């Protein structure tokens, strides 16, 4: 159980109403500190990873500079999380099915609408669950996390549309 002072710091900000030239404006005061864990009392400072403008010299994957191996230099960074220094080799990409190729590369009305709504499609399909038998022999390495399954894989998703006469 958190002590009283900790609960107070996690409380919502005090909201007061102001009126300026007939319009109502909400002002937040006494905004609490942001906490990583309940037992810490330090403020979180803004942090950015910068641009993803570095490339692995082996597999050419785009990387952030902070993802480099800790003992590599800034001028010639070595990255391990992409190809584990050429220990992991990916086969060339297969050609896309024609329907996807049209959506992703051509400039027609259907392609334009797809690009406008691609985040919505991703969000709608993101909350799915899978069922599979996991091969744990490859998950205990110190390199890239590998998720390998065997047998059948089940992809469970609910309906994308609400029931008849129901609110979404």
Name the descriptors:
168 residues, alpha+beta, 3 domains, two-stranded antiparallel sheet, 4 helices, 6 strands, 18% helix, 19% strand, 9279_t:CDS:1
Topology:
Blueprint: H1 4-9, E1 14-20, E2 23-29, E3 54-55, E4 62-63, H2 98-105, H3 109-116, H4 118-126, E5 129-134, E6 149-156
Antiparallel strand pairs: 1-2, 3-4, 5-6
Helix pairs in contact: 2-3
Silhouette: extended
Supply the number of helical segments. Answer: 4
Order of helices and strands: HEEEEHHHEE
C-alpha Rg, in Å?
25 Å
| Structural classification | alpha+beta
- The residue fraction in helices comes out at 10-25%
Kindly state the number of beta strands.
6
Alpha carbon gap, first and last residue: 38 Å
Q: Low-confidence parts, pLDDT < 50 over ≥5 residues?
A: 1-32
As for the number of domains, it is 3
Mind summarizing the main beta sheet?
A: 2 strands, antiparallel
Mean pLDDT: 72
Description:
This protein has 168 residues and is of the alpha+beta class. Helix content is 18%, strand content 19%. The chain contains four helices and six strands. The chain has a two-stranded antiparallel sheet. The longest helix has 9 residues. It is extended, with a radius of gyration of 25 Å. The two termini are 38 Å apart.
């Amino acid at each position: 159980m958190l002590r009283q002072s900790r609960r107070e710091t996690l409380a919502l900000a005090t909201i007061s109403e102001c009126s300026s030239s007939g319009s109502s404006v909400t002002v937040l005061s006494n905004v609490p500190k942001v906490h990583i864990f309940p037992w810490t009392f330090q403020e979180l400072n803004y942090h950015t990873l910068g641009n993803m403008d570095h490339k692995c010299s082996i597999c050419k994957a785009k990387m952030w500079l902070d993802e480099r191996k800790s003992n590599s230099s800034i001028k010639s960074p070595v990255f391990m999380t992409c190809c584990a220094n050429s220990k992991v080799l990916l086969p060339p990409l297969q050609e896309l099915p024609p329907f996807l190729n049209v959506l992703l590369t051509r400039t027609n009305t259907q392609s334009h609408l797809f690009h406008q709504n691609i985040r919505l499609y991703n969000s709608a399909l993101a909350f799915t669950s899978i069922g599979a038998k996991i091969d744990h022999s490859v998950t205990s390495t110190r390199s890239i996390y590998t998720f390998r399954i065997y047998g059948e894989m089940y992809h469970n998703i609910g309906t994308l549309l609400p029931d008849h006469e129901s609110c979404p």
